[in-house]
Design a protein that fits this description.
InterPro entries: AIG2-like_dom (IPR009288), GGCT-like (IPR013024), GGCT-like_sf (IPR036568)
Number of strands: 7
Distance between the termini: 37 Å
Protein name: Gamma-glutamylcyclotransferase AIG2-like domain-containing protein
Structural class: alpha+beta
CATH superfamily: Gamma-glutamyl cyclotransferase-like
Number of helices: 3
Helix content: 10-25%
Radius of gyration: 14 Å
Organism: Methyloceanibacter methanicus
CATH topology: Hypothetical upf0131 protein ytfp
Strand content: 35-45%
Length: 137
C-alpha cells in the first residue's frame, strides 16, 4: 500500500486558523476541502486532541490538504505535532464533505486525554465561541 499524499488537520493547522504553521501549510500544500472522520475531539486548551475510532457515534471536522512532492513539509509538520509525545502520525480514511473519501495522514492520540470532549467535533467553532477572538495561539 502506498503512503498517503494528503493530510487531514482538525485543530491549529486548519484553514481559518491564524497559527504560523497553518499559514505555512496553506502556502505549501493545496487545500482539497473540508472533511470529517469518526472519533472524539478533546479540548486541550489552545489546541485539540483527536481520538479516532471508526465505531464512535461522533465526528471530527477538519480540512484535507494535498501534500507537495518530497518529505520536507511532512517532516516540519511531524516536528510541530511531536511537541506532545502523546501524538502519533497515522493514516486514516476520511470523508470529504462534498462526497467521496480519501486516505490521509493525521495526528491522533491512542487513549482519551483527561479533557472535555468538544461538542460537534469542530475545534475552530469551539475556539471562537470560547474565546470570542480568532485563533492566535
Amino acid at each position: 500500500m502506498s503512503e498517503p499524499g494528503h493530510i487531514f488537520v482538525y485543530g491549529t493547522l486548519r484553514q481559518g486558523s491564524n497559527h504560523p504553521m497553518a499559514r505555512r501549510l496553506a502556502a505549501q500544500a493545496r487545500h482539497v476541502g473540508q472533511a470529517r472522520a469518526t472519533g472524539k475531539l478533546y479540548d486541550m486548551g489552545w489546541y485539540p486532541a483527536a481520538l479516532f475510532d471508526e465505531n464512535a457515534p461522533t465526528r471530527i471536522i477538519g480540512d484535507v490538504f494535498a501534500l507537495p512532492p518530497g518529505d520536507r513539509l511532512l517532516a516540519e509538520l511531524d516536528a510541530y505535532e511531536h511537541g506532545d509525545p502523546n501524538y502519533a502520525r497515522i493514516s486514516l480514511d476520511v470523508s470529504l464533505i462534498g462526497g467521496g473519501g480519501i486516505l490521509a495522514w493525521t495526528y491522533g492520540v491512542s487513549a482519551p486525554p483527561n479533557a472535555r470532549v468538544i461538542p460537534g467535533g469542530d475545534f475552530l467553532t469551539h475556539w471562537n465561541a470560547k474565546n470570542r477572538r480568532p485563533m492566535r495561539p
